Automatic annotation (TrEMBL):
Stored PROSITE patterns: HCY (PS50970)
Annotated protein name in UniProt: Homocysteine S-methyltransferase family protein
Binding positions for Zn(2+) per the UniProt entry: 245, 308-309
Family per record: Belongs to the vitamin-B12 dependent methionine synthase family.
UniProt cross-references to PANTHER family, sorted A to Z: METHIONINE SYNTHASE
Xref: InterPro entries: BHMT-like, HCY_dom, HCY_dom_sf, Met_Synthase/Corrinoid
Keywords: Cobalt, Metal-binding, Methyltransferase, S-adenosyl-L-methionine, Transferase, Zinc
The species this protein was found in: Agaribacillus aureus
Amino acid sequence: MGAENIYEILKDRILVLDGAMGTMIQEYKLEEKDYRGERFKDHPHPLKGNNDLLSITQPEIIREIHKKYLAAGADIVETNTFCSTTIAQADYHLEEIVYELNFESAKLAKEAAQEFSLKESDKPRFVAGSIGPTNKTASISPDVSDPGYRAVSFDELTLAYREQARGLIDGGADLLLIETVFDTLNAKAALFGIEDLLDELNSQIPIMVSGTITDASGRTLSGQTANAFLVSIGHIPLLSVGLNCALGANQLRPYLQVLSKESTSFVSAHPNAGLPNEFGQYDETPDMMGDQIEEFLKEGLVNIVGGCCGTTPAHIQRISELAARYSPRKTELEEATDNAAVAGKINANK
């Protein structure tokens, strides 16, 4: 079943996105030599912490993590490519392998997804190419003494995202997920780069966009409210728009209500397992997080739901169990169609 069918599936049921990749990688207690592997053993710069590189140097670990999430009930697994742009990989002096990072990561996720799709033909699994925000922002100066300065340009971001998307698509990604958007201008560069690439390829691929409300102000880091964020990306036909990271499910809920009310696309959410404690750890258990997620489901706020920082396969299993009990959010068009059908029945019975 191809990615084009995901639109129809989303009308019928809530799809479950996987959980945190970084949280799972931490459990393996990897050291510098593990990140380097044989290929990069002589690389002159430190590589520990470059989780995306593990798709090349420790592919079995990444494959195993994907399988754990799929076994927990995830319908969509994200590629291990959150930092796989030339801009982000510049920190490790590995810009030249960015296409390979994305291609190999997508290939790993696709192999795992296909394995589970074959086991359960009535539950197709999809691969979302994860496209992170990079470590630079196009809207805000990193220098408080020079507010007009930018560490990156729109054109540089566009080229970086375009290259990342090419690797993800070539590697087999079914969808592209522009996530953890703290600066909508960065996201717009990603969308522009992807559109340009798709025009070149004469192809289409469903695109998800997920923003990040950074704190109780209800705004992204670049200052937009949830509604303003939605309007800023509304010119692009999207599979879904949603929110992830920074906040736990309870804190995310009011902003999801805004998206659910205003968006003509499907709506997604993958919150953190609560807020981090003083040691930077996430304390919410699967049941604690599940109780909060269930409120989204009862209200009919989402079509896609999963987890971000601090979440594990146990969290995703609980979310999957809950999602199966509820109907997905209906878009405005679906509601209008349903209302017209009801009106037609009433008139027919008069």
